[in-house]
Amino acid sequence: MSTPPNIRSPLRERLDNAPDGDPRWLREGAARVRLGDLRTRTSLGGRASALAGRSVLVATRSQLAAALALVELDGVAARLILCTPDLPPAHLRGIAERGGVDAVVSDRDGETDGLTIPLRIPIDSALASARGEACAQRRDTEWVLLTSGTTGAPKMVVHSVASLTAPIGGALGQGEGVVWGTFYDIRRYGGLQILFRALLGRGSLVLSSPGEPIAQHLARLGAEGATHVSGTPSHWRRVLMCANARAIAPSYVRLSGEIADQAVLNALHAFYPRARIGHAFASTEAGVAFEVNDGLEGFPAAIVGAHGDVQISVDEGSLRIRSTRAAARYLDDAHHPLSTDDGFTDTGDIVERRGERYYFLGRRSGVINVGGLKVYPEEVEAAINRHPAVRMSRVRPRKSSITGALVAADVVLKGTVDPIFTREILKICRDSLPPHKIPATIRFVPALEMAAAGKLARHA
Amino acid sequence: MSVKEAVISEIERVAEENSKSLPPLTDDLVLLDSGLDSLAIAILVSRLEETLGVDPFSAFDDMAYPVTLGDFIRLYEHAAQHQIAAARAAG
Prior knowledge:
The complex is a heterodimer.
Chain A: H1 10-16, E1 25-28, E2 31-34, E3 41-42, E4 55-59, H2 63-73, E5 79-82, H3 92-98, E6 103-106, E7 119-122, E8 129-130, E9 142-147, E10 155-160, H4 161-165, E11 179-182, H5 189-200, E12 204-207, H6 214-223, E13 228-231, H7 233-240, E14 252-255, H8 262-271, E15 276-283, E16 287-292, E17 299-300, E18 310-315, E19 318-323, E20 329-330, E21 345-354, E22 357-363, E23 368-370, E24 373-375, H9 377-384, E25 390-400, E26 404-413, H10 420-432, E27 441-444
Helix pairs in contact in A: 7-8
Chain B: H1 3-17, H2 38-52, H3 56-59, H4 69-90
């Protein structure tokens, strides 16, 4: 087949140059796609070239459908916006506007109907059609990831394949026969890292199908012989509480997206004694900063100040990172640069040095990390404050040994407490927020501490 | 109230708040099959820390994560005994 002269997509390059009979595959539920078929088949009815230079919203239920569209459109579309599966439909219009979306690829009907978008292309995960002519002109495609924002509207974080794959270089020396599995969704940073590791390395990948129960996902990972499995500490605690946790026998267990504590590291080591167990520090904005493979929580003090691809500093207790793996910018928020003038991104995570090691203490900004999903206190407070009896509220993290943190709310009422209020406030929250943002506890208090400038005092 | 009764009563409360109906709460019930997801279990554990004064998930670095309701109750019974023993040693 003819190779476009100026390929800029390492994804396509890797797939197009794979040897004949590439045995690798992507699997979701009963569907299985051979990666070798991506050279000659299309998931977009051969219409990828119609999407050249466009800003494309990738809105799918299935992870496999999203993966196929992303592979086919990298280097073709000007921008790919990855919708997360739990994105409230109410936010779709705003995202389409902010992202200048002029095309949608989707595997579902209805969801994006309210949007006036000129071009809609359905995704066919069965790859029924031949690819046809390759798009002659290649470009650097922007990859836009959605992450939780203060107001409830997601922040749009701009990456490139270069920044997304920068952490992977050293990790590709894997042998043959690697089978990846992830409890993340591939439309989030942590999951996308695993998709790229499979596509660029020598691995296959097992994806979970929409709504698949964890026990079934584990059984499938086991049946497919998953060797490298990744998830948040909360995902892994859930796995350890499953009756069929021994369905998998991984040789590599990876934790990221949340602080890994010693209890979960020890429990995984005891449960999967053959596995190398590593935890990575990563965020959508800063990318993967470092990986820790000594089985201990925290990280060695020696990596702070060291020279290399990733530079790490600790400033007034805050962990700061400068690397080629960081996102370029927020798509539409020029007022909030991702990094400071010296190129460092403040992760907002507070660390403390004890001896030759640093340990994580919590977040500076009050952002609550519930099982790897970010919650901004302001958006929960806004929901609570809609109750007519509420004068004001403060939402804060409460430490959890299961999900890292939970959402706790302190509420000041206009009048006296009525026990029905708790129920009513929770109902308002349930109607407007996803489950991880709903307060686990609501406490009625006489007053809230105010900081200077009349802002609510927030303590980590 | 025994540790077991405290655990069962909190499970029922969390399930009711989440409008989940529970299967019979036998010792061999797999917790994650009870209708409670990990978020609900996190809430359960934080409530039990308030009522029983102990969180075995953060108290022990070398703990086997519980799979069944029986495992879960034993973990709390063990933690409560541990706490009493520690209090005696200190006192």
